[in-house]
Amino acid sequence: MLLLITLLLFVTLILQSQCAEIPCNQQSIDKLDDNVLKLTTFGDPNRNLPNEKDVMAHCQADSVMISWGKNYTKTCLINRKEEMSHHVTNLLMFSMKKVMNKRCRSETSRAVFIKAGKCANSLKDDTIKCWNKYIIDTQQVNKAKGTIIKNDKHLLPLICCAYHRFHDCSVDAWSKSNGAEPCNSKSVRELEGYVNDSMYDIIQYLCGDYQENSDRCDNLINRYKEVFTTVRINKIAKSPLSASNEIFNFLPPV
Fold first, then answer.
1. pLDDT digit string, tens, across residues 13-31
2. Where are the domains positioned within the chain?
3. pLDDT the model gives residue 3
4. How far apart are CA 123 and CA 14, in angstroms?
5. Before 182, cis peptide (omega within 30)?
6. Rounded Cα distance, 103 and 113, in Å
7. What's the burial of 244, exposed, middle or buried (CB within 10 Å: 0-12/13-18/19+)?
8. Which segments of 109-199 are extended strands (E)?
9. pLDDT in tens, 178-197
């Protein structure tokens, strides 16, 4: 009991320090990307999904990062042109909070999540490639806006399709063992659910007719093949969020 109270006090102190005034600069943008990388874990070479011993500390760290992200949104994404990036970043933090609560608070859900994590951790090299491709695709779209991509109406569908390619790439990686442990069918479903739950609200908000990978995405990506084959990215971000927010801020306010 004393240990639990100590942990709660410790987390409260961290949250208070994290929620102090946040500078609205590139360092904070980079920190937001880094937090998103850690929250999703699938692209992070330095953070695995937790085991039985680490799960509560993992959940507490998630809570701190989510609170910081919400505070960043409230502090820094406040101009009219940032309405969409404000809403999407808030949605992501809200969704990650739901994901965390679902998998951290219930002992049964935690057990399933921990078992699925063994699958995800064993195939991290594969999903890191999927994640980095997702980031690069989004950065390429951002860099090509207003030039190669002259039709602004195609920007949101393109980043939606970039996400769908990441989703399918990750699920293919987890499924390639054909049910062999640790990636049995239940673990693969849990991991896919983790991704879906994290992004569902954003996909509903942004993607319209591009709710899943389909011929629409194939045709659109093929139409802008030049973007994905010729646009060079000098530095890969830690997550797709910062490039996505630049795209949202480029579009006229709704």
1. 544 444 458 999 999 999 9
2. 28-250
3. 43
4. 32
5. yes
6. 6
7. buried
8. none
9. 889 999 999 999 999 999 99
